[in-house]
Amino acid sequence: MTGADGLDITHYGPGALPVIRRALLDIYGEVLADRLADPFHSVTRFGERLAAHAALPGWEVVVGYDRGRAVGYVYGAPLPAGSDWWSRLSPGLSGAETAEDGTRTLALYALFVRRAWRGTGAVRRLHDELLGGRSESRVTLMVEADRPRLRELYEGWGYAHVGDQRPGPGPGGAVYATLLRARERAAASGS
């Protein structure tokens, strides 16, 4: 479907990853070109995370195309029952707020748009397109703490900062702001 921003939007499930993987990695490499020297941000490491995410039940990616060229995407999957997503969060949330059953919370793992498409509304359209077809009651994502403008963008879309964490085991690595948005707010704002 083509929108006012000129994008053709396509939804893909995990079975399509072999077909679209190269496009997703190319966009990632372009968007994070200034961070690729960091082993965590390398295209190889991202490819590993992409494969792991795509193996999760309910994984979906929405890709925007301009004249057949992929220009951006967003993907996510429901947090599985017993997920450790919330376990390193500081300050912590209550047990009721972190209990996952595999259907409650959609985790957005990646949202990237090529530079030429920034400021066009494409990133919001991709985000809203993914959420529009989902049944989870809330959505969460992480943003590197050193990217305050990106965090402000998401907060402008109704996300609330619920704490900070370092994903993965061990004390090293970047600090991430963890954001959460109830889908009721998403529906009310037109998502």
From TrEMBL:
Residues 18-182 form the N-acetyltransferase domain. The keyword Manganese does not apply. This is GNAT family N-acetyltransferase. InterPro entries: Acyl_CoA_acyltransferase (IPR016181), GNAT_dom (IPR000182). GO terms for molecular function: acyltransferase activity. Its EC number is 2.3.-.-. Keywords: Acyltransferase, Transferase.
